[in-house]
Amino acid sequence: MTKSAKTPKHQGIAIWLGENIDYLKVWNYQEELKSKRSLKFIDDTLVFLTHSSVYTLGRRIDLSHIVSKLDAPLIETDRGGFVTYHGPGQLIGYPIIDLRSLGIGPKRYVLALENALICTLNSYGINAYKRGKDTGVWTEKGKIASIGVKISNGITTHGFALNISTDLRAFESIIACGLIDGHCTSMAEFSVVPELAAVAEAISNNLGQELSIIWNW
User: Fold this and answer.
1) Which residues, listed in sequence order, are joined to residue 93 by a DSSP beta bridge?
2) Catalytic residues
């Protein structure tokens, strides 16, 4: 783990939007929050939810990574990375953060996300870790969390996805995140299925430690 960002404690807002939320609806919501954050109308905001089933393409579009018919809509986005799946049982986190106010850059930010997820999984008894230069979080059974972000004028959008009780068969139609050997796993495969809200709170606490942000629910 790296040390927390060397900045004073900032105040932020954490929000639980609910389950089975439409992807495009939340993408538009992120854009609204980004505009408000850039104008300093709101504090840094951390949005948690689960999506209804959807596949998304990142900026590194490679349609050869779709290997069979998809059973859910496919949406092209402006986040980093390749194709992935979102759906029920997968906890999504969208931080809308002004990195300039924290004095950190994109690499440190992504590392903070990874560290927060790793610390959270470790607290549930799951040995999670980074794998080389690949973005995301792994376990001995495969990749358990993915990260794809966009940073515009210092403000972050998009974020991370943690498989809790996700139906992993949904990943069989794609080469997830462009990784040929990127078998996906979930907390459920470790016989750990906590409440979504409890995991969200744990992640927010750990990310707060990483970025020196106090999240107010």
Assistant:
1) 48, 160
2) 177
CA 198 centroid distance within chain: 16
16-36 pLDDT, tens digit each: 999 999 999 999 999 999 999
Structural domain boundaries of the chain?
13-212
pTM over 0.90? The answer is: yes
Q: What are the backbone dihedrals phi and psi of residue 203, each rounded to the nearest 5 degrees, phi first? A: -65, -45
- Going 149 to 130 to 105 to 94, the CA torsion angle's sign is positive
| pLDDT grade for 180, boundaries at 50, 70 and 90 | low
Sheet holding 134-139, edge to edge: 129-131, 134-139, 142-152, 155-163, 90-96, 44-49, 10-16, 213-216
Q: Given this structure, which CATH class describes domain 13-212?
A: alpha beta
Q: Please answer whether residues 127 and 213 qualify as being in contact, where contact means their C-beta atoms are separated by less than 8 angstroms.
A: no
**Residue 205 confidence (pLDDT) above 50:** yes
DSSP conformation letters of the chain? -PPPPSSPPEEEEEEE--SSB-HHHHHHHHHHHHHHHHTTSS-EEEEEE-BPSEEEE-SS--GGGB-S--SS-EEE-SSSSS-EEE-TTEEEEEEE-BHHHHT--HHHHHHHHHHHHHHHHHHTT---EEETTEEEEEETTEEEEEEEEEEETTEEEEEEEEESS--GGGGGGB-GGG-TT--B--GGGGT----HHHHHHHHHHHHHHHHTEEEE-
Tell me: pLDDT of 61 over 80.
no
